[in-house]
Amino acid sequence: MDGLDVSRLAAVDIAVALRSYPRRFRDVLATASASRGIPADELVGRVGSDGHCGMDLLLDVVNTLTLLDRALDEVLLADDPALHPGVLDPSLRDWTPPPGLSLETLLDMLDDQCADLAGAVEGVSMADWSRPAHVADGPALTAITIAQEATRVGAEGLRSFEGTLRSAG
């Protein structure tokens, strides 16, 4: 979990950040599309200087938030569950885009996933934030660590998405 330091974020901050991501992704997309004079659905399919296209980055954010949402559920329902290693290691997150996935559908999926995860975060009691979990051959983590990772994924995904749209050929 490198990059942005989210270790001090409280649940209320996490929920606010998660609820903001759909609007922020749409704003970045609209601004990039307007400034470049390229339709949004075409722009997100172009590869940027980082070797990725916006659709792939957006899909990564949506699917990773889904993974983290499920991990949070597991931590809250089971005692010290073993979680998918991709919860902590982005290199183990590999998402194949479904055929025919449209930009609007993916943005709607982001809306839904962020709302679901923010709602889950708001529903966790103070005592449950310290519930433990682990990944195979990896470090221990807690419910709050998972929620904080979701915030980092959203923020860094947004930053990458914006950079890719700016540099897309």
Describe this protein's structure.
The longest helix has 26 residues, at 11-36. The model has no long low-confidence stretch (mean pLDDT 93). This protein has a single domain (11-167), classed as Up-down Bundle (Four Helix Bundle (Hemerythrin (Met), subunit A)). It has a 3-stranded mixed β-sheet. The protein is mostly helical and 169 residues long. The protein is built from 5 helices and 3 strands, in the order αααβαββα. The chain is 59% helix and 5% strand. Helix 1 (11-36) runs antiparallel to helix 4 (103-122) and helix 1 (11-36) runs parallel beside helix 5 (143-167).
N- to C-terminal distance? 30 Å
Radius of gyration: 16 Å
> CATH superfamily, please?
dinb family like domain
Note poorly predicted spans: none
- What can be said about the biggest beta sheet? 3 strands, mixed
Helix percent reads: 55-70%
Shape: elongated
- The first-level CATH class is given as Mainly Alpha
Q: Can you give me a brief rundown of this structure?
A:
This protein is mainly alpha-helical and 169 residues long. It is 59% helix and 5% strand. It has a single domain (11-167), classed as Up-down Bundle (Four Helix Bundle (Hemerythrin (Met), subunit A)), CATH 1.20.120.450.
Descriptors:
169 residues, mainly alpha, Four Helix Bundle (Hemerythrin (Met), subunit A), three-stranded mixed β-sheet
